[in-house]
From TrEMBL:
The gene is tyrA. It comes from Motilimonas cestriensis. The keyword NAD applies. Keywords: Amino-acid biosynthesis, Aromatic amino acid biosynthesis, Cytoplasm, Isomerase, NAD, Oxidoreductase, Tyrosine biosynthesis. It is found in: Cytoplasm. This is T-protein.
Length: 377
């Protein structure tokens, strides 16, 4: 006997199949867009165009009784795939006269990403690894850009070996600390120097909307083409000083990584049942736990180097430890009034950002909830 829902489910399946066909059609159009952008040197990410398109689709959805957040979620996910597919068409070469590019450490994960993007942009890219230094003079002697992409602990010693670069060669690095590497590059090279820090890992599918911090070293006009090239890839370039960058990274990277490390160490020390925690968790705790687990799925040497690369990181972590201790004292005293007063003070300090973060996190939490999959016991 047919189930009462069979007919409706069949109709839904038909609509879903149409959605698949429409998405395939959209991706085919995106491929054509990518070719045009590549030809004319247009960035793959156009924020004004994206914002206007989403606003229009939200308005149309509202008029048809479709939740506007639903259509925005679908389109944003679709656009993320579209940005990734535009990589296949390559990018315009901003500086076609550039001599060869040498990526030192180009065999590493992040180095490979830049090697690929530079090759997609039409540049001749050579990779120099630690066992290739017998070829260094040949590769570096004619270089137009040298990009240092080695681990933090050997970045400055690697830079120190680059004293014979052509005077007009651009020397850059992609290390997560900037003061030391930028100074080292300025000391060893008389030509253009710029410090870069990609604020993402090597597992991204596209540079669209990704942030790359850059710190001027010398002769900014000589490396401006590189900034433009990365903008064409879709990245957002954020200019800052090396000192300001490192101060921000103390909070953004070192402190956050260390607190995740400490939380993971504590979970292990009490032998927490992770499976049970996940079963009982709300979306926000699941995300928090996922971020801690993500840390321990990666290279421990990398995170040790990030946390220990700057003496100021330890000072900040010690300051956080003191703040944590003050919070424990409130609990020991059972002083709810003091807790609430402290909470309100911080809430006031966040100001409008608190509500902005509430809105952003709501969308993230809903996505985390949607991705949960339960199996019958």
């Amino acid at each position: 006997m047919a189930h009462p829902l069979d007919n409706l489910r069949n109709q839904i399946d038909s609509v879903d199949q149409q959605l698949v066909d429409l998405l395939a059609q959209r991706l085919a159009l995106v491929a054509q867009v990518g070719e045009v952008k590549s030809e004319h040197g247009l960035p793959i990410y156009a924020p004004d165009r994206e914002a206007a398109m989403l606003a229009k689709r939200r308005d149309e959805a509202t008029k048809k009784g479709v939740p506007p957040d639903l259509i925005e979620d679908i389109l944003r996910r679709t656009m993320r795939e579209s940005y990734a597919s535009e990589n296949d068409t390559g990018f315009k070469t901003v500086h076609p006269q550039l001599r060869n590019v040498v990526v030192i450490g180009g065999g590493g994960q992040l180095g490979k990403l830049f090697v690929n993007m530079l090759r997609l942009s039409g540049y001749q890219v050579d990779v120099l690894e630690k066992d290739d230094w017998q070829r260094a003079d040949d590769l570096l002697g004619n270089a137009g850009l040298v990009l240092v992409a080695v681990p933090i602990e050997i970045t400055e010693s690697t830079i120190a070996r680059l004293g014979n670069l052509p005077s007009d060669c651009i020397l850059a690095d992609i290390t997560s600390t900037k003061s030391g590497p930028v100074k080292a590059m300025l000391d060893v090279h008389s030509g253009p120097v710029v410090g870069l820090h990609p604020m993402f890992g090597p597992d991204i599918s596209s540079f669209a909307k990704q942030v790359i911090a850059y710190c001027d070293g010398r002769d900014a006009q000589q490396y401006q083409w590189l900034i433009t090239q990365m903008q064409i890839w879709g990245a957002r370039l954020y200019r800052t000083s090396a000192q300001a960058h490192d101060e921000a990274m103390t909070l953004i990277q070192a402190l956050r990584h260390f607190t995740s490390f400490a939380y993971g160490v504590h979970l292990e020390s009490v032998n927490a049942d992770v499976k049970q925690l996940l079963e009982l968790s709300s979306p926000i705790y699941r995300l928090e736990l996922a971020m801690v687990g993500r840390l321990f799925a990666q290279d421990p040497d990398l995170y040790a180097d990030i946390i220990m690369s700057n003496p100021d990181n330890l000072k900040m972590i010690q300051s956080y430890h003191h703040s944590l201790g003050e919070g424990v004292k409130l609990l020991e005293a059972g002083d709810k009034d003091a807790f609430v007063a402290s909470f309100n003070r911080v809430s006031e300090w966040f100001g409008d950002y608190a509500q902005m973060f509430m809105k952003e996190s709501k969308a993230l939490l809903q996505q985390a909830h949607d991705s949960r999959h339960y199996q019958d016991d």
